[in-house]
Amino acid sequence: MTLTVAIVGRPNVGKSTLFNRLVGQKLALVDDQPGVTRDLREGEARLGDLRFTVIDTAGLEDATDDSLQGRMRRLTERAAEMADICLFMIDARDGVLATDELFADILRKNAKHVILAANKSEGKAGEEGWLEAYSLGLGEPLRLSGEHGEGMEDLYQVLMPLADAYEAKEQEEMPDVDVELTDEEADAEVEGKSRDFTTGRPLQIAVVGRPNAGKSTLINQVLGEERLLTGPEAGITRDAISLRFDWGDTPVRMFDTAGMRKKAKVQEKLEKLSVADGLRAVKFAEVVVVLLDAAIPFEQQDLRIADLAEREGRAVVIAVNKWDIEDEKQQKLKDLKESFARLLPQLKGAPLITISAKTGRGMERLREAVLRVHDIWNRRISTAKLNRWLMDMLEAHPPPAPSGRRIKLRYMTQVRTRPPGFVIMCSLPEKLPESYTRYLVNGLRVDFDMPGIPIRLWMRSQD
Ligand code: GDP
Ligand code: GDP
Subunit details for this protein (predicted)? Predict the structure, then answer.
């Protein structure tokens, strides 16, 4: 059995488009299979290294108006029953319609797990609708564009832990062939099956850096003796891009960009692959460890990937490797910190750790830094606290009054985590200068202790 995801939502939000993207060439139509109605299409989906079954409920389009409601309800209930996860899609350009609310109710009652997605989110046009989607009360909406392939990494991020937990459950629940259960016992087992797949989520880490920075050495070091002896490739499928293990007592999934690169035979292919893998790893990761070589730190390529990680909203740790062969460590550290502040001001406050992947020195500090930034990245601040804070900020430094009308910032709330994102309800948001937004973001960073973490802040007008 594989994890099953049903794409549900009203006609024309883009379900089939996403289905086709996930399934690619290997589209399997199952019309003629017994028990499956024509309204449901099923296919094998690929997303990064994830494989799952996807069900498309797009068959509603040919419904006549008066039959639509009933069919929609039946179809959605059916999909919810078949699937482990319902990916509930709205059209970000239309915003939340009454029909969407109806769907939300059906799913709340029937689905085991719902992922909310605001599709057609490419460009600016979808932003309002995406924010509106919060009002459905189904958690944080993903921003997707099925047509343009945007937001696929975020979808992956949400699905991966669910897939992991599902897999772990499947293994646990694998029937023991030596034990014969009575029918009652078998039923009892099924009854006890948890409907929640969210527990046991591994922390996703990408180790990125230039060739020879020491990525493989670092990964082998944290994997430990056991894995080293069998070789990092043991038990890993060919197209796997990640390794899963416990780092100390933290379950992690580490993206091994170096391992993949080393499999490439041809030199030029190798370079291309290593850049592409680095980028992909950043998108799939929660925490990005930028590994520098102490002898040649902050090279162009290092700066590019660190900047990308910040722009993608990932938590970043800078690890300076090969510290074992540095003399004059104190002066060197001072220089490093100075270069870091000058060359990567956007990551101000992110941890910079010196390590030796070879000797293992600094591994515990690296682990702690990773956990710390991950924790901040996931932080949620209460609306009450935010609004008290906003009042203080407004008082300390009132917003400007362009042409005599003072811009009013009325209400603030955190709309997302990973990384933290906030919305402020505001009159005349387009008149608010960039410098004022910066003042607020910097204030948030300092007052809520979120150094080195990308923070998103949106101003939204009140209608
Ligand atoms: P379904 O009825 O929910 O399966 O929707 P379809 O997948 O058939 O898409 C409906 C329409 O929306 C089609 O014209 C698609 O090309 C368009 N569409 C789908 N996804 C996107 C998207 O991400 N952005 C935009 N702008 N249009 C999209
Ligand atoms: P990758 O290309 O980033 O995966 O780098 P490797 O892990 O293959 O390491 C490149 C070279 O640097 C190898 O010769 C390693 O032995 C060496 N190396 C890696 N880490 C350290 C370290 O902490 N100290 C020293 N002295 N050498 C290291």
Answer: Associates with the 50S ribosomal subunit.
Residues touching ligand 1 (Cβ under 6 Å) are 11-17, 58, 61, 119-120, 122, 145-148
Is 56 annotated in a binding site? The answer is: yes
- Ligand 2-lining residues (CB < 6 angstroms): 209, 211-217, 258, 321-322, 324-325, 356-358
End-to-end CA distance of the chain: 48
ipTM: 0.64
Is residue 412 a known part of a binding site? no
As given in the structure block, the two tokens for residue 200 are 């046991």
From 267, 296, 358, the mutation candidate for ligand 2 (largest count of ligand atoms within 8 A of CB) is: 358
Residue 179, SS3 per DSSP: coil
d(CA 326, CA 338): 17
Strands 456-461 and 421-426: parallel
User: Within 231-346, where are the H helices?
Assistant: 257-263, 267-284, 300-311, 329-343
Angle of helix 267-284 relative to helix 152-173, nearest 10 degrees, comes to: 80
Q: What is the mean pLDDT of the chain?
A: 80
Q: Which ligand lies nearest to the CA atom of residue 93 in the structure?
A: 1
Task: Give pLDDT tens digits for 62-105.
Answer: 445 556 677 777 888 888 888 999 999 999 999 999 889 989 99
Tokens of 198: 């969210």
Answering whether pTM is above 0.80, one says no
Q: How far apart are CA 94 and CA 91, in angstroms?
A: 5
